[in-house]
Amino acid sequence: MEPSAEEAAAKCAKPSPAGEDSLSALPDDVLVLILLRLPTRDAVRTSVLSRRWRRVWGLLPELRFSFTEPHGIRGALAASAVPLRYLLVGGLRGAPAESIATWLPAAARCLTGELTLIDMGSAGGESEERGVLELPCFDKATSISLDLGLLALSVAPAGVFARLTELSLIRVRFHGPCELGRAVSSPRCPCLQKLTVKDSRGLDNLAINSESLKLVELRQLRGLRQLTIMAPVLQELIVVSCFSYDQTRQPVANISVPQLESLWWADAYDPSSVHLGKMENLKSLSTIFCVYGPEGFPQNLSCLMLMSRVKVIESLTLGLAYPQEINYYQYLMEDMTILPDITSLHLILNVGGHSCGACTFHILRMSPGTKRLIMDMSSRFILEAQAECPQGCICDQPSNWKTEELKLNCLREVEIREFRGSDHELVFLKRLFTWARATSLKRIAVAFKLSVAESTIKELCKMLRTFSRPEICMDFYVYQDMVKVLYACED
């Protein structure tokens, strides 16, 4: 077996009797493997070791820069002697457009793989003083990810991104008459499969015509007025909070995606102006409903109109959102009178410490065919200090879920995510397991929230087992190093 690059380097690095520099005698490909394990700045510094080392770092196929002066990046790109498969430039902290423009065209010429550019933005947010950055044509790159900190961006009017498969634009302020739609359509991006645009502004009209796109994700595009997507092989479409910023304007969309399998639409929707086509292959639908709010809440009307056009679907993901203070609002779940015929139900419960009993009971009662139930007890948008509702809160009203029976005859599997064991959660789970006792339930999986102490987890495991039947398989999961693993619960 031949030694690895590290073993060969270690062997050659041992001092020889004559003081010979054995490390420099290694072949270029071995030295490159060694330098790839160093920060790029340190790899460049090895050029001062000897004449032999001057050109070695220029053979690196990957370069990573952070808090680097523009001329340093430009010089490194000029000295690069091989095509780059990866280029990372991060920590720019609100750099002006002209400083990025000094090296970006050089990157476009030598990059054959992935570009990641992260600009943390200036403390004051977007600024006209930073100028406008023109994105040149990367004709050989396969992936481009730009987080520009609301720096203004324009796209070069010509050129073909011939090999680009993924494009991600985050915190971009699109400048002037934006031609993003034309740039990402098939004539200029013939291989593009994944397009993501998030937290951006200035994109009022986006028109895409692509023969290759499989996923389009659009989130928080403030100012979007019209969306057109013609994509015959698109499989997944995500549109979140793009039209809802300006509720005085009717959303306008014309979308033709005959192969669409997954739709996540958490935005304004009006069937008279938002045309989604037949969607005959749709398998998964995701949307958001506000449990409490003013009468005629626009987001809820959009949600109900969207779900009404889908009669049968495999999976429904429904985000149930609570305001932090609910006593000043109306309970709106009774506006939801019908759901699609589903087999898998995923509830994302942004309840902020309130009880989810009433709203979840309402939904389960309308979903008798559900075979798999996922309940995500998410509190990611709620401060931990506000995670419990005040005394006398109305969140468990109407209280019929505490006494009425519920038939879940088809239910086979229940999964609870982000469980922290609050009183409200325990009361509801005990009721849920009571409803499920008469069913053919086979498995219950509970994943605890990362912040739950191990001593608490042990007590909760014992308690939850008393809620269930012995023949039901019950698994518990915890997070170790941010990875979900099976928890060995003592019986």
From TrEMBL:
Superkingdom of origin: Eukaryota
A Pfam family this chain is assigned to: LRR_At5g56370
InterPro entries: F-box-like_dom_sf, F-box_AtFBL13-like, F-box_dom, FBL15-like, LRR_FXL15/At3g58940/PEG3-like
Stretches the record annotates as Disordered: 1-21
SMART domains named among the record's database cross-references: FBOX
Segments forming domain F-box: 20-56
PANTHER family tied to this protein: OS07G0229100 PROTEIN, OS10G0396666 PROTEIN
Name of the protein in question: F-box domain-containing protein
